[in-house]
Amino acid sequence: SQQGEEDPQALSIQEGENATMNCSYKTSINNLQWYRQNSGRGLVHLILIRSNEREKHSGRLRVTLDTSKKSSSLLITASRAADTASYFCEGIYGSRLTFGEGTQLTVNP
Amino acid sequence: DTEVTQTPKHLVMGMTNKKSLKCEQHMGHRAMYWYKQKAKKPPELMFVYSYEKLSINESVPSRFSPECPNSSLLNLHLHALQPEDSALYLCASSQPQVRIGPPYEQYFGPGTRLTVT
How buried is residue A59: exposed, middle or buried, by Cβ count under 10 Å (0-12/13-18/19+)? Predict the structure, then answer.
């Protein structure tokens, strides 16, 4: 069963705008990862945030984690057409890993 | 080398066929994973191998049979599949995740697109 839920399910923005995607989870996690996936291809790891961290940055990416609300957000700043992809969060508890439903991001040039 | 390779890229098989999917990594990772992904859905964990031993089987039907012959290779043997088993099958590797310990990034292969006719 899926642990995480993501919203929005689909997001369409213009190039240069910021994109924010949210992920909520139901059970305890040790860590949470965000991935991107281009259509029908493998997943690319974007960023990992530990349960004792609140915020993490990597280039144009900013991830927050609120363990009290069991939620995380991924912000992509100054989006580009190449950012068009599906984005998934994955909760990690021990060796058990569960993906959220994902957000399909479309960045229009 | 941070690559996970999967073969074949595409596979079409009948319901009576026996086939195998292969996954290989040379990053020294001791955990390897099989995921199944249907269109427009997230990957679903099927199996986890840790130190070449099966540690998690997410109630996967026996027509899927995993095998980890060594620390670099992971196979998924397929037999008597159903059309609903058609999906993208993803392999991943990492250092073994433990509850108390550092997290490790997973590296995913490009997947095998399986069609069962």
Answer: exposed
Residue of A93, A84, A86, A95 lying closest to A6 (CA atoms): A86
Cα–Cα dist B33/A99, whole Å: 14
Q: Quick: pLDDT tens for A62-74.
A: 999 998 888 999 9
Burial class (CB in 10 A: 0-12, 13-18, 19+), A1: exposed
CB pair distance less than 8 Å for B108 and A43: yes
Burial classification of residue A52, based on how many CB atoms lie within 10 Å of its CB (0-12 exposed, 13-18 middle, 19 or more buried): exposed
Check CB contact under 8 Å for A42 and B50.
no
Q: What is the pLDDT of residues B5-49, one digit of tens each?
A: 999 999 999 999 999 999 999 999 999 999 999 998 999 999 999
CA distances A8 to A19, A24, A25, A74, A101, Å, are 10, 11, 15, 12, 10
Closest Cβ–Cβ partner in B96, B103, B111 for A41: B111
CA dist., res. A99 & res. B5, Å (int): 22
A83 sits in which H/E element: none
Residue A4 and residue A27: Cα distance in Å, rounded?
A: 9
Task: Provide the chain B residues 39-58 that lie in CB contact (below 8 A) with chain A.
Answer: 40-45, 48, 50, 55-56
